[in-house]
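Hi all, long-time lurker, first post. I run a small reading group and we've been trying to get comfortable going from sequence to structure in the token notation. Rather than ask abstract questions, I figured I'd post a concrete chain and ask someone more experienced to write out its structure so we can walk through it together at our next meeting. Sequence below, copied exactly:
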Amino acid sequence: MKQKNFIDMQKGLTGIAVLLMMAYYDQWGNITAWVYLALHGSYGLMWVLKSRIFPDQQWEKSTSLAFGLVIWAGLSLYWVAPWLLTSGDVQAPYWYLAICMAIYIFGIFVHFTTDMQKYTSLKINPGHLITGGMMARVRNLNYFGELLIYGSFAMLAIHWMPIVILLAWVSIIWIPKMLKKDRSLSRYPEFGAYRERTKLFIPFIY
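-- Answer (accepted) --
Happy to help. Here is the structure in token form:
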């Protein structure tokens, strides 16, 4: 199996997992739980569609069942947020829900448009460095989009633990991948100038 098979299954089943938590903790009247379901559940389905329509080549690698289950387990740490929300009967104020939804929507736009640009650019013009469009100022803007998406999920739980999990993913998985990508792109003569005028991950900051 490929790595993406485990990733797609885990993310695609998130909506069902959240529904089961809502049922177990009787959260049918909790608007915060419904908002969480709508956000994280829809993201999971959009990810599966993206994987079919414009897949990321890094997830096309074959993997063993053991490592696939490690991937699944790691991604399932993101389910801590809905568990905390449903088990703790978290009731966020409406203004807070609006902020979380706005962050999520912006993150979805940034993440998926950047990935689409990367996919189409590599299809149309392979072997060239992508320096324009969504990646004109930030080299890994798709990861920034994911940070906003998962940040909105973590915020809805109103608990420190999902924030710690997200930061662990960023520091242990995401940033090393970005730095590895930089080393790979350094083979292009124009990469030095591109790196000087762009940020690695977060616009205007880093």
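A couple of things your group might point at:
The chain has one domain: 3-197.
Residues 94-124 form the longest helix (31 residues).
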